[in-house]
Amino acid sequence: MxxxxxxxxxxxxxxxxxxxxxxxxxxxxxxLGADVIKVERPSGDPARNIxxxxxxxxxxxxxxxxxxxxASKRGITLDIETADGRAIFKKLVKTADFVIESFPPGYMDKxxxxxxxxxxxNPGIILVSITPFGQTGxxxxxxxSDIVAWAMGGYMYQWxxxxxxxxxxxxxxxxxxxxxxxxxxxxxxxLYHQELTGEGQQVDVSIQECVAxxxxxxxxxxxxxxxxxxxxxxxxxxxxxxxxxxRLWPCKDGYVSWVxxxxxxxxxxxxxxxxxxxxxxKGMAADFIREWxxxxxxxxxxxxxxxxSIEEPTGKFFMAHTRAELLEGALKRHVQLYxxxxxxxxxxxxxxxxxxxxxxxVELEHPELGASITYPGAFAYTSxxxxxxxxxxxxxxxxxxxxxxxxxxxxxxxxxxxxxxxxI
Length: 424
Hints:
The chain is α/β, with parallel strands linked by helices. Helices cover 38% and strands 12% of the residues. The strands form three sheets. A six-stranded parallel beta sheet has the order 3-2-1-4-5-6, with helices on both faces. Strands 7-8-9 form a three-stranded antiparallel beta sheet.
C-alpha cells in the first residue's frame, strides 16, 4: 500500500503487466488515485515503439502513444521469467490490491504467478486478465490483433460505405481500448466485493465479448426482425432498413452531422420541419421539400426516390454555409445539427471554449524533453475527490531505485547485480 496519490482509489496499489491491450486499464485506475506501477521488461515495453512520436523522432522514450496510456503511473523494469524476477514480483504482490495482465491464458500459471499462487501470497489480491477471447472456450489460445478483435466482435460490419467491404475505425486500437475500459470497471467491482468480504478474485475480460457488447444498437434489429442493419453513413430505420439516410454532410469548411428523421409535428420535437423552414427562408428548399407533408412523413413509406429528392437540396444548403454559420442557425431554430470537430477545433476552436471553461486540459512537464505537453484531463468530475492525471508516463526503469530500494528494502549492491544479470 502507498498513500502517495490522493484519490478515490488511494491507497490501492496496481501492478500493471499489460501490453497495448490493457494499458488504458491501469491509466484509468491511476487517474482515480491508485498507485499504478507499470512493470516492463528491462529493454522496455514494445508499446514504446508505437507512434506517433514527439516531434516525429522515433524513440522509445518519445512515443505519444506511450505517453497517453501510461500517464498517472510509475515505472519499473523486471523480467518475471527469471527466478529472481518472480521472487521480486511476489514481494510486490504482497503490497498490492490489483495485478492486471494481458498475457495468453496459462502464461502466468506456467510462471507460478497465476491467481491460485497469488492468492496464497495475498488473499485479497484481484487479478485482472485481458485476453482476446477469455480464459476458456475453443478460441482461448488464439492470437489476435485489434482489427481481428474488432471484426470478430461484430462491430466492424457497421463501418464503411454500404457498397464496399467493412472497415476498421480509427488508426489506433479501438477494440483494445474498449476492453481495457471494461477491465477497469470489472476491477473496481471486484474491489467493492473485496471491501465487503476480504476476498480477492480473478476478473476474466474477453476483448471479443467487450466489442460484442457494443453491438446492441444493431443486434436488436436482428433479434426483432432477423434483418441485417446495413452499414454506411446512413441512418437505417426500423421500418425500412434498405434505405440509407445520410447523416454526415460536407459544408464549406468541413462537415456537419444531421439526419432527416421524425414525423414532422408528430415527432417531439419536429426537427425535420424546422430545418425545412430554415431552408425555405434562404430560398433553398426544393419543391419536393416545400410540398412535403411533414405531419405524416415517416420512414415506413420511404423510397430511394423520395430520399434522393430530399437530400439533393439539403446537400446544396449545407455547402452554402460554414460550420459556424450552420451551428449558429441551428441553435436559433432548435435544429438538431452539429459541426464535426477536428483535433485542432477541440484544442483551439469553438468546442475548446467549453473544455477550457471546465479546466479539462492538463499540462504535464516532461523535463527530459525540456517541454510540457497538453493532455486530456479527468474522465469524470466528482464533488468529493476529483480524478486527475497525476504524472507523465515513466521513462524506462525510472522508478527502480524508488520502489526496489526505498520501498522493498533491496540493497543497492544487490540491485546492481540484478541489473547486470538482466533481471531489472
